[in-house]
What does this fold into?
Amino acid sequence: MKCRICGAPLKKEGDICTNCYKKYQEEEELKKDTKEVLKFNGKYSIAYEFTKYAWIIAIFILSSIVCISAGGILEEFLLILIFVILMGFLLFIDKRLAIARKVVFYEKKVVYTFNFLFINTEKVVKYSDLTDVTYYQTFRQKRFGYGDLCVYAKGAFPGTTLLNGFQIKNVENVKEVLEAIGQIIGPNNK
Ligand SMILES: [Zn+2]
It folds into this structure.
């Protein structure tokens, strides 16, 4: 007799081994954990996005000045049109991406989902498998209190985010969020 899941020889009667049974029980236990403790996704704010695209705005203003001083009214109109379409497209994508990533902390596990166009990813990490939770901030993010929250799980290499963990971009009040996470995962699981 062999284990139905991993193929290990069975010592006792049955169809799965004790290892797989333990894993199965753990998974069942995790499924029962449905109490949401903390939930957030990436923040989208027009003000922040505009600082990100400051260079586009600068180019636009500079070309506008050139256009107007050369008396090109039609060119100026075209320029404005291109600018509006481009910014609209970029902001639309950014907004989609911001809501696409969602993270929910439960009592024993954290669930990360990413739904964008046809991509649907879900990652479930139990707290005992977490190795580190931290955040990164650019200067621009700092001014807004935003940060990229990185959650590492066992097996991940430091510095890379996506092997066995996940990253949520532009988390609002990232410092406070990290503290809250520390309190959720800290006492019972580390
Ligand atoms: Zn097995």
Observations:
- The chain has a mean pLDDT of 86.
- Helices lie at 18-32, 46-52, 54-69, 73-100, 139-144, 174-189.
